[in-house]
Amino acid sequence: MTDSDAVTRIHAAIRRIEAAAQRRDAEEADLRQRHAALRDEVSRAIADMDALSPQDAG
């Protein structure tokens, strides 16, 4: 193996690592967005249930 072969393999490995890191970042951003939407939905559902509670009716 020549030095240029090793350098080529190293560069290819770095590109794969960078691509994997970008995919992971995108997946984490999607998960954060879905979590926020779910949290909002649960908050609204709890507020709706609280509004139906006879104790809150006064």
Task: Describe what this molecule looks like in 3D.
By secondary structure, this protein is mainly α. The protein has one domain. Helix content is 86%, strand content 0%. The chain has 1 helix and no strands. It has one helix at 3-52. The longest helix is centred in the middle third of the chain and has 50 residues, at 3-52. It is rod-shaped. The termini are far apart. The model has no long low-confidence stretch (mean pLDDT 92).
Entry summary:
By secondary structure, the protein is mainly α.
Order of helices and strands: H
Low-confidence stretches: none
- Strand pairing plus helix content: what structural class? mainly alpha
Number of strands: 0
The first-to-last residue Cα distance is 83 Å
What is the assembly state of the chains in this entry?
single chain
Helical run tally: 1
Shape: rod-shaped
Percent of residues in beta strands: under 5%
Sheet having the most strands: none
| Tally of domains | 1
**Roughly how many Å is the radius of gyration?**
25 Å
- Mean pLDDT rating: 92
Helix coverage percent of residues? over 70%
